[in-house]
Design a protein that fits this description.
The protein is an alpha+beta fold. It is built from six helices and three strands, in the order H-H-E-H-H-E-E-H-H. The chain has a single domain, classed as Orthogonal Bundle (Arc Repressor Mutant, subunit A). The chain has a three-stranded antiparallel beta sheet with strand order 1-3-2. Helix 1 packs antiparallel against helix 4. It holds the Pfam family HTH_20.
Length: 110
């Protein structure tokens, strides 16, 4: 991920509802969530949620697929990995052992 893509991702996450959506979709995992369920879970009107979902999709942090008459949203794991890799690109001045506690903390213990 380059700096401009990272800035787009940070910009998308810098709004409270979008950050809540992203975290909710991380929690939902591979199953994802329909747009209506996301709005209901966060108590956000449909037209407002649609705007937030569009911003997150354009940023590369989430993706969607049509599921019958609704649209299901998922975290884009490649986008999330890219952002984390960008942040840690020059981690610890060539001493990966110093970064290991951070990596352990963010690793999924599923």
């Amino acid at each position: 991920m380059d700096k401009n893509h990272a800035l787009d991702a940070f910009s998308a996450l810098s709004q409270a509802t979008r950050l809540d959506v992203f975290r909710l979709l991380v929690k939902a995992g591979e199953a994802g969530m329909p747009a209506g369920d996301i709005g209901d879970a966060l108590d956000v009107r449909q037209n407002t949620m649609s705007t937030h979902l569009s911003v997150l999709t354009r940023s590369g942090l989430i993706r969607n697929t049509r599921d019958g008459r609704s649209i299901r949203y998922f975290v884009d794991m490649d986008g999330m990995r890219g952002l984390l890799a960008f942040l840690m690109e020059d981690c610890c001045g060539g001493r990966p052992d110093l970064c290991q506690p951070v990596i352990d903390e963010i690793a999924c213990a599923c």
